[in-house]
Amino acid sequence: MEPILKGKHIVLGITGGIAAYKSVTLLRLLVKAGAEVQVVITPSGKEFITPVTLAALSGKPVVSEFFTANTGEWHSHVDLGLWADLMVIAPATASTIGKMANGIADNMLVTTYLSAKEHVMIAPAMDLDMMAHPSTVRNLATLESYGVEIIEPAAGELASHLIGKGRMEEPENIFTRIEKYFLRRCDLKGKKVAITAGPTYEKLDPVRFIGNYSSGKMGFALAEECASRGAEVTLICGPVSIAVSDPNIVRIDVESAEEMLAAARKPFTEADFGIFAAAVADYRPESMAEHKLKREGAEDMTLRLVRNPDIAATLAAEKRDSQVFVGFALETDNEHENALKKLRKKNLDMVVLNSLQDKGAGFGTDTNKVSILSKDGTEKSFPLKSKRAVATDIVNEICVTDI
Ligand code: CTP
Across the chain, what does the average pLDDT equal? Predict the structure, then answer.
């Protein structure tokens, strides 16, 4: 699974505050995740951290002045603003925040900010009184109104030894915010997604069936999540009592596994992403009685069941390289091993494992707790969340796989 930051262009702005030393960790995290980072530092920033360290870690000369003094080389803030997929200023001092809010473009960093076409985040760091000063509060509100994302400082002991709000957020948390930003942006416009959901009912006679407790909620949440990102979604679902509201979702209702496979063939062949979230009955009665089975005379009864098609395995066997197919695995024991076996056997790219041992996970509930295993052997575990939030995590992973 490729990291979401791979190849992303990030301008890391560093200003003159003690917290500048933490920017080295942030820079390392970004570079390690595959981002291309251009450091822009203010003149006072250089008093706190040396450009040599930053250049060595980023693999690019640090930009600070409009010109390189000895060669006269011009650094174009306009080009940098266009190059950047994201600009992050960490730490952002009261002075830089004030200049940004008021368009005072007297250094390379603020001019780059004014030229930035994409998203800008700032991580303020200053003493608590400066942080609480009405001018800072007003400037931050102004920046927020311009669409700048403020990474709120934490409370704690400050460089002045005073205790209060003003400490720059930890680099690891800033890094997570950056990752989240790119994941949020990952839309599915122009992509086709096919999803199976819900249970299947296998008829015994006109009034009875073999089924299971699947509510379809996970599959529906995935359909809504994909549709909200602009995908064209086809949802092939067994008997469920939920409705879809998004007009980008085409719903096909089926009952049995055989019907589900027949209805799923075309959408899955055409899909960029396929998700098998249905709880398909593995067996069906060998035959369906045409009339209601009668109790009369029979003390006991033997039902003969035959194997249903494995929808995921059947459709994934014909998967093209460009397609990403995801299955679910509901396991009670040897979970990871069994989930990986399913991934390989069914030719899937990812398997979402939910363990019945986890409270709040699985059938009928509104929440789920999953681990996502990929065919490259990586695994990510997530905490208990609403099924909609789990759907966001799963779709994020699909987006990352697709990059
Ligand atoms: N699946 C399917 N068709 C089937 C059975 C399963 O498409 N007939 C899909 C499910 O939608 C899920 C994945 O395969 O994405 C794994 O389902 P699961 O029931 O956990 O696996 P099985 O292969 O049925 O294995 P077992 O029940 O023996 O654990």
Answer: 91
